[in-house]
Structure formats: C-alpha cells, structure tokens
Amino acid sequence: MPLLNLPNSLLLVVDLQARLMPAIHDGARVVANAARLLEAGRLLAVPVVVTEQNPGKLGPTVPELAGLPPAIAKMSFDACAEPAVLAALGGDRDIVLCGCEAHVCVGQTALTLLECGRRVVVVQDAVGSRAPESRAVAIRRLAAHGAEIVTTEMVLFEWLRTAAHPQFRAVSKLIR
User: What domains does the chain contain, in order, with CATH numbers?
Assistant: First the structure.
C-alpha cells in the first residue's frame, strides 16, 4: 500500500544533536519539522526510536525535541549496526525517517533497512546535512534504492487519512 498506515508506522529520529545542528544547513527547519512529526506521533500513538551519534562528543538531542524516549547511543554511522536500535525497530513496521546527516547516518541507516526488506519513508524536509549538495545527492540516492521521499505534511495527513479523525484539529495545527 503506497499510503502510510498509521498502525504500521514507526518514527526513527537520527542524531538531531545539540553540537551538530548549528553546522547543518537550514538546521532550524529540520528540527522544526522533526518536532512536528514527533508531536503528531505523540498525538497519534506512533512509536518513536531516537539515536545519538557519539553523544559524548556531539551532545544530547536538541532541547527543542524534549519529551522523547531515551536515545540509543551509537558509534556506527549506520544505526542498524547497533543491536539496541534493531531491537527497538522490531521486524515489520514502516520506518518514517528523519534526522542528520542525510548523506551519512540517515543514508547508511536507510540503505541497510532497505536491504533488509523494510519500507523506508524519508521525510525530505526533516533531514539535513552540512552542505545542501550532500543532502540533495543523498535524497536522490535513497530514492534510487527504493526509499520513498515525502514531506512532513504528507506524513501527517496520511497518518490522519480523514478530517473526521479525532486528532485532526490538533495535528493540522502543527503545520499552520
């Protein structure tokens, strides 16, 4: 099914960390869209998995994303190399992916998930890189390997499916 299915979705937030984000091109927009996804996920009971790359050096997840589940620390760029991440992702949910950097940790994680047969949905306006061209090339590469490329607004409205959803007003306010 091409549309996202709310009960089968999981949001994976990769490395949106305090010391990294100032270097990310348009980082404030990436964080704002990740926050929208997280708030919609909270309202709609979407499970969330969070990673932090080398948190001793890059610090914790940005404070704008407070209230997340505890982050899983990792040293590998590919989050799938961390057994705790794989365990948290489970075996069959669609992975809605946001975070940094598109061409490193997000990219390697997405490619491994695709290789494992998972459906990967990359939220283009909620992923970032230091250089815009690195992000653009990563998005093209991920799409070429089977990742679906969407926007934050697409995810929110596919999770809702209808204006009759009990959380419609609360979720739609996130994009105004």
Answer: 6-175 (3.40.50.850)
Question: pLDDT value at position 46?
Answer: 97
* Cα–Cα distance, 133 to 131 (Å, whole number): 5
User: What is the pLDDT confidence band of residue 142, given thresholds at 50, 70 and 90?
Assistant: very high
The 8-class DSSP code of residue 17 comes to B
pLDDT tens readout for residues 56-112: 999 999 999 988 899 999 999 999 999 999 999 998 999 999 999 999 999 999 999
107 and 138 Cβ atoms separated by less than 8 Å: yes
Which is nearest to 95 in space by CA: 155, 4, 10? Answer: 10
Q: Integer distance in angstroms from the first to the last C-alpha of the chain?
A: 28
Cα atoms in the 13 Å half-sphere on the side-chain side of 118: 25
* 15 touches 100 (CB < 8 A): yes
